[in-house]
Amino acid sequence: MRRPASAALALCLLPAAALASDLTQFSRSSIGAPFLRLGVGARAVAMGEAFTTLADDASAVYWNPAGMAEIRKRSATFMHAQYLGSLSFDYLSYAQKLPGDFGAAGASLHYLSAGEIMETDDAGVDLGKFRPYDLAFSLSYAYRLSERTEVAIDPDEERPVDEFRWLRGFTFGLTAKLVHSRITSSAQTGAVDLGLQSPLYLDERLRFGAAVQNIGGTLKFDQESEALPFAAKAGASFLFTDELTGAAEGVVPREAAPYLALGAEYRRRVRGQWQAAGRLGFNSRTVGEVAGVTGLSMGLGAVYKDYHLDYALVPLGSLGPTHQVSVTVNF
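Below the sequence we write its predicted structure tokens.
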């Protein structure tokens, strides 16, 4: 029977940073592919997932496709995370600036494995083991409105009038994804993400951004349908000093109450072309749901030229911590 297996699996496939608060929500909801909630990149996870305005490398394919416009040439990100039990998650993304003034494009692959799970029927009879997994493939595009915006002629003034001046410097992004999920049977669907980033304000210290994830798409197993985990989010980031950055955003998901994400990063040059970073985050989605410390995240990073190695630790109270390591190369 699929539903007993699905209910058990739902407890495993929750986003690690939200696992504590969503243990019961997902098990009793009709939300499918909860692995799409799993944050990617240890830098973003350590900052409480407040990354909508800071995404500026290949991981922007997930966080906010508009952020790909910040890539100078090419960028690649690989991440591995080990969660509770045998649950593991891998992520690979690539993005690059397109020739001329044609924006940027990228692609990504998510793969989550739950390992082996025992299946039983309604009477408790052992039906053997199965290996559930989730897979998503994404293609993304970003475009920044440049200073060369076409103008219209005002017939009364007989001079050019820039009707879209206020949009100059804004970046827009689109991601199309294919989602495949297998429990004891398989289902697949498509979905779309939309993203927006503003230009920099206040001496290039302040930026706003917004994204809408997993628009459309329904996974249908046998006769049962599950909507993807839609979420809308908006926030801002601010460069307090050349070494300290802060970010804040609000998130409205389909399956739960709205929540707040906060993050900070301190990065300092230590020697030559080496830099070290320390990060701290807070995500209100997990607060107070289990005993112990929840809602906090932290991490470290090392940068040498265009090579980034990042680590994140997310305490989940009595459930124990989760760990994530990622590597990003800009070339």
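The chain is about 10% helix and 50% strand.
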